[in-house]
Structure formats: structure tokens, C-alpha cells
Write a structure and sequence with these properties.
About 35% of the residues lie in helices and about 30% in strands. By secondary structure, the protein is an alpha/beta fold.
């Protein structure tokens, strides 16, 4: 198996590559990036004979297609994905190479689940798998696994928090912050009572308990893709909501204040004869965190709650994960790429994780890599008040 990791020099791309090179069936991993400085690589990647680095510009279609024709699968780790998802997918279709991305942006789903791309991917005989990181990705499959043990599913609630200390390695590229700000602006999709609704990002605050060292954290509606994809594959589900936040709390509060005061506006302003876009300026400033500010714990977390019925009783499943974002995301993408090449994923066209991956096979691979998922099941009588 040969893989090209687009955005491979970034923290998420390197995390995927580190898992890939451990697998016997992987012959070659090409790290494609606009930045090709080998000193930025982890020592294990620099030392591996399987790894090479090449310059890739996701906007250079012909060069990207040429690079893809020498591999079996491409993993797109180059965000923001509402800008790169379509360009890399179209190159993968032309090269007839399976595609995986780690996009956590709902606009990527809107841009990829269109007749032109879906039909072209099917005709090319390939899979365009979008949203295969930790969130979305692992939590989609947790929800699918729990749903398979219920007669009917009423509600899926997805919660997450990401600490800036945990995203520190990838923050300098700006892509991580671009997503963090972008998902907090405008109206974002939520699936509520059987209907897709668009709610104001940053509203709907509630407090959720995560595993230590995270504890109780306020979370709000954010723009992630699961409310768009899960109802497509999970028949009968009535509600799919997703809420998240950046940690420590001062980070998320400041983002909300910037939104309210216009610092996240995308319309240019005239400042002393120069056009300045507030969003671009704010994004640039977020790339450096003042040393005297609390960066929070070096851990992030997510919680999945699935509610439904089984044998005439109410059942609630709760799953919790805590750990580092980059390894959790990169390993998930690596496992999916390996499953594509082994034939464990055989759906052609554009698809989300819950539409093509067997959760039991996926979690066997994930837990085999040392991941831990804490699960509880609560059963109550339908007669309970």
C-alpha cells in the first residue's frame, strides 16, 4: 500500500503518517505539503525509509493528479477543508484513487455531497470518505455502534472540547484557528425533532461533564457535519445536535466577544484608505497566544450520548474519550485508509464514516492501538416519570 498525505508536514498529517509506517502492508508514505522542511518532521518519520516529502499545492490540479497516480490512497489533512476538500477530491477522482479527509466542517459535506462529485466518484470506482478523524469520525462510529443495539433511536448528542495547549503544534499554520473561528460564525446545522434547522453558532450553552483533567465545561452549538450526515444513514433518528468549545474558558469567551463586536466579520472595512478584513486580522492575531495566559490542559475530550428504546424500555448510552487531538485524529484517518485498501470499505461515491465503516472492525483496530473509550448503559422503564 502506498499513501499520499496532503498537509503531511502538519501535526495531523504527521500523526496519520506515524501510524501508517508501523503497518507491514504500507510500503510508502508521501508527505505532500506546501512546506517541505524535513526538520519539522518527527524523528521517527525522518528516519523511516518508507517516508518521503514532496511539495504539493492543493490548488495545482495537474501536479496533484500526477502525484496521486503513484499511490493507492490519499489522506487530506490540509485544512481548512471547505477550501481544500473539493480540489483534492476532484484530483483523486481523476487519478482513480480512494480519498479520506479529516474535515470537521459542515460546508465540506455541502460541497462534496453533490450529484457531479458523487457520480464521478462512482464512475471512477472510488470512495470519497469525508470526516474521518476523531470528531467527526470516531464519534460517528460510536453513535452508529450504540444505535445498532437499539430498536429505535431518538437522540444523538455529540459534545467536545479542545484545549489550546493540545492544538499548539498545529496552531502556527493558521488552519486550526481558521476552523475554530469559522465554526463559531453564522448559522450552523442541527437536526432537531426530525428537521434540519440552522441555528446561530455560539448559542444554546449548556454545561457538560468530561473525563478528567477536563471536568465540567460550557459548550455551544458549532458548525460540524454530523447533523447533515447522520440522519442520512440512521433511519428514524429524531435529533442530532453537536456542541463544542475551546479551552480554557477564556478562549471561547473571547471568541464569542470577538464575534459580537465584529472582529469575525468577513466584509472588508476601509481603515485609513486600506481595506482590512476583520476576520483575517483576528485569525492572524490568534496564531500567537500571550505567554501569561493559561493554555489549559494538554488534553481534549469528547462525549457521545445516544438515547432510544429497546424491548419496550428507554436506553441511554454514554461514551467518553480524553486524549490528544492530533494522534486521535491521525490514527482514525490511517485506520480508514487501511480499511479502504483492504476492501473493508467498499461503498463507492461520496460517503461519511457511519455510511461505510463497520464499527466493530474499526474499534478493534483503534483499541488495539491503545485507545480507551469509557461507556455506560442506563436502562429505565417506559413507565418511569
Amino acid at each position: 500500500m502506498k499513501a499520499l498525505v496532503v498537509g503531511g508536514v502538519g501535526s495531523m498529517g504527521q500523526a496519520a503518517a506515524r501510524d501508517l509506517i508501523k503497518q507491514d502492508q504500507v510500503e510508502k508514505v508521501v508527505l505532500g505539503d506546501i512546506v517541505t522542511d524535513p526538520s519539522r518532521l518527527y524523528e521517527r518519520l525522518r528516519a523511516s525509509e518508507k517516508v518521503s516529502v514532496t511539495k504539493i499545492d492543493v490548488n495545482d490540479h495537474d501536479a496533484l493528479v500526477k502525484a496521486l497516480k503513484d499511490v493507492d490512497v490519499v489522506i487530506n489533512c490540509a485544512g481548512p477543508f471547505h477550501k481544500t476538500g473539493v480540489s483534492v477530491s476532484k484530483a483523486a477522482i481523476e487519478a482513480k484513487v480512494n480519498y479520506v479527509d479529516i474535515s470537521d466542517e459542515y460546508k465540506t459535506v455541502v460541497n462534496l455531497f453533490v450529484p457531479e462529485i458523487e457520480e464521478r466518484a462512482r464512475q471512477a470506482g472510488i470512495t470519497i470518505l469525508t470526516g474521518m478523524g476523531s470528531d467527526p469520525g470516531t464519534n460517528n462510529l460510536i453513535a452508529k455502534y450504540h444505535a445498532s443495539h437499539l430498536d429505535s433511536v431518538d437522540e444523538i448528542a455529540l459534545f467536545w472540547v479542545v484545549s489550546i495547549a493540545d492544538m499548539e503544534e498545529g496552531a502556527t499554520s493558521g488552519a486550526a484557528w481558521d476552523h475554530s473561528l469559522h465554526m463559531n460564525t453564522g448559522s450552523v446545522p442541527q437536526y432537531i425533532d426530525g428537521r434540519l434547522e440552522y441555528v446561530e453558532a455560539g448559542t444554546g450553552e449548556e454545561t457538560v461533564n468530561f473525563l478528567e483533567p477536563l471536568g465540567s465545561c460550557p459548550v455551544r452549538y458549532v458548525g460540524h457535519p454530523q447533523p447533515l450526515t447522520m440522519p442520512r444513514y440512521m433511519e428514524g433518528v429524531k435529533t442530532v445536535v453537536i456542541k463544542g468549545a475551546m479551552l480554557p474558558e477564556w478562549v471561547d469567551r473571547l471568541i464569542q466577544e470577538q464575534k459580537e463586536t465584529g472582529f469575525l466579520n468577513a466584509e472588508p472595512l476601509d481603515v485609513k484608505g486600506t481595506k482590512v478584513t476583520p476576520y483575517d486580522l483576528t485569525l492572524q492575531l490568534w496564531r500567537t497566544i500571550p505567554q501569561n495566559r493559561d493554555p489549559g490542559p494538554k488534553a481534549s475530550g469528547m462525549k457521545v450520548i445516544v438515547k432510544g428504546e429497546r424491548d419496550g424500555k428507554r436506553v441511554t448510552y454514554t461514551s467518553d474519550i480524553v486524549g490528544r487531538t492530533a494522534p486521535g485524529t491521525g490514527i482514525a484517518a490511517s485506520i480508514a485508509a487501511l480499511m479502504l485498501c483492504s476492501g473493508d470499505i467498499n461503498v463507492k461515491g461520496v460517503v461519511a464514516p457511519e455510511g461505510c465503516i463497520d464499527p466493530e472492525k474499526y474499534f478493534a483496530a483503534l483499541l488495539g492501538r491503545g485507545a480507551k473509550i469509557y461507556q455506560t448503559e442506563t436502562i429505565t422503564s417506559m413507565l418511569s416519570v
